[in-house]
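Researcher: I'd like a candidate sequence for this fold, 262 residues long. If you have to choose between options at a position, lean toward the conservative one.
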């Protein structure tokens, strides 16, 4: 028994002596491994971050600058696009036909209507004189209307009289397009040939001057009648016609908001 017990003690002592160095080595290597893995990344990461930041900023700077530089380039085509031109007024055939009919009716009111009416009110010996006065007044006023009457009555100038923009009917005919200039109507975008409007207003000027001779029939010289009609037409009829009948058309009418913005 004693020998067996001594053998066990010897074996246990041997195992203790053999295992103890291995345990000490394991305990020494494990902390060293932990210290190495923890200590190595810690000082390396702060030093590396400042060096890595500039490339990131350099990459981000061009990307941020690219949209800013592209914005003016994208805006440039929009700025060069021209504004749509205003549509030209359309000549209405129905309005033009009716204006021609109305012009013919007013001519018939003067010649022979007014001439025969005044001729029937005077003595038979003066009937021919009255007829000639009405015919001559009509012809003279038509000529004066085409020379300067229409321009002073139906062009923009002042509050009391127009201008000489249409003297001798200048600008009525467009030789390039081969058409008459359009005249505005009461409908926006709808027009009639301006020459038709000139003829229509000329007949009213002529019959108005012809009506005057009824006040002094048989009591005035023929030359004095013509001189008086020319003076009255120039200094009385034209200013009144401009103040009463002239307007720039529907395109020239502006509301309160438009006037306030100007």
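Model: Candidate sequence:
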């Amino acid at each position: 028994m004693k020998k067996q017990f001594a053998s066990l003690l010897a074996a246990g002592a041997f195992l203790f002596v053999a295992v103890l160095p291995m345990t000490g080595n394991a305990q020494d290597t494990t902390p060293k491994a932990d210290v190495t893995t923890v200590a190595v990344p810690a000082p390396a990461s702060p030093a590396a971050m400042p060096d890595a930041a500039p490339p990131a900023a350099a990459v981000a700077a061009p990307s941020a600058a690219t949209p800013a530089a592209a914005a003016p380039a994208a805006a440039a085509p929009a700025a060069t696009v021209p504004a749509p031109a205003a549509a030209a007024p359309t000549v209405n055939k129905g309005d033009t036909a009716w204006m021609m009919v109305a012009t013919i009716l007013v001519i018939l009111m003067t010649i022979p209507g007014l001439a025969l009416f005044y001729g029937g009110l005077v003595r038979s010996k003066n009937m021919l004189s009255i007829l000639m006065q009405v015919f001559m007044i009509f012809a003279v006023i038509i000529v004066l209307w085409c020379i300067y009457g229409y321009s002073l009555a139906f062009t923009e100038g002042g509050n009391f009289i127009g201008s000489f923009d249409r003297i001798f009917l200048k600008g009525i005919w467009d030789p390039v397009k081969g058409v008459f200039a359009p005249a505005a109507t009461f409908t926006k975008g709808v027009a009639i040939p301006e020459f038709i409007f000139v003829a229509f207003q000329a007949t009213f000027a002529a019959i108005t001057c012809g009506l005057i001779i009824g006040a002094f029939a048989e009591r005035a010289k023929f030359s004095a009648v013509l001189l008086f009609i020319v003076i009255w037409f120039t200094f009385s009829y034209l200013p009144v016609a401009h103040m009463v009948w002239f307007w720039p058309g529907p395109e020239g009418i502006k509301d309160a908001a438009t006037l306030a913005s100007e």
